[in-house]
Amino acid sequence: MNEDDLRASLAERVVAALPMAVVVLDAAGRVRWASDGVEGFLGVAAADLVGRDAALLEREELAALWEPDEWIALSPGGKPTLFHRFERVGEEGERILFLQPVPELVELQREVISLKEQIASLNLTDAETGLFSQRALNLILEPQVARSRRYDNPLSVIVMAVELAEGVEEGFRRVAQQLKEQLRWADLVGRDRWGRFVLILPETTRDAAAALAGKISRRLRESGLVSECRAGLAEWRKQDSASGLLQRAAESLLAEAAASGEAVSGT
Fold first, then answer.
1. Nearest CA-CA partner of 148 in 63, 70, 244, 232
2. Superfamily of the domain at 3-102
3. How far apart are the C-alpha atoms of 187 and 170, rounded to whole Å?
4. Which CATH number fits domain 105-260: 1.20.1250.20, 3.40.50.12160, 3.30.70.270, 3.40.50.300?
5. Which of 29, 141, 216, 235 could disulfide-link to 242, CB 3.0 to 4.6 Å?
6. Which pLDDT tens digit goes with each residue over 71-114?
7. What are the distances in angstroms from CA 26 to CA 15, 57, 96, 119, 190?
8. Could you tell me the pLDDT band of residue 168, with boundaries at 50, 70 and 90?
9. What is the pLDDT of residues 172-202, one digit of tens each?
């Protein structure tokens, strides 16, 4: 084996070890080479692609590989997965396509950043606290519910009503700051039309949400900002819409208040 063959063999082994798929198209658009990762990510053997015209591949799903989109959704093994797609052009005019699966948390982070940018452009914030407004919460929760429906991942919502301690200035803004400090980067918090705080918690079960609600309530009381704090919560179910999930969390809060003989605004 000459030096060039050794280099080519080493390069193929290195590529095979990477957590991605690589496909090389010649200048005529035929598949010249494909890494072994293609089968794991796309469900088609690399050998079945080599020599074929990319534009004539039968599986419609694979057509997305040749489009210029940076982010594409494929369903290897029947499970929808987001991939980061990028390409380079070789010395002989060949296209080298790289396809890397995006971990769910990275996808979630990308969606959260996009949502925050959209909300900022619309200025949908609560004037008193600087948190997301009711309208913003509705916009935020829709894609979160769609994501849970697509991946069957947990999603919980907490609706929290607080009563400020006597004499506390700018109390709701300070409560809002405390809430943000106790949440993860993926979590979102806003204030609804009744002045209640709403926490949207991706990748969170009902039990975990209940534990978080208890911790937040204790810390708010200990801070001296509030004299009373009650929370209702709900975990997404397959039949839930975004508004239905919010409604169930609000009803949980009202039930909690009714059991204690207190009145809480909102339905």
1. 244
2. PAS domain (3.30.450.20)
3. 24
4. 3.30.70.270
5. 141
6. 777 776 666 677 778 888 877 788 888 887 776 656 677 777 77
7. 18, 15, 9, 44, 52
8. confident
9. 999 999 999 999 988 999 999 999 999 999 9
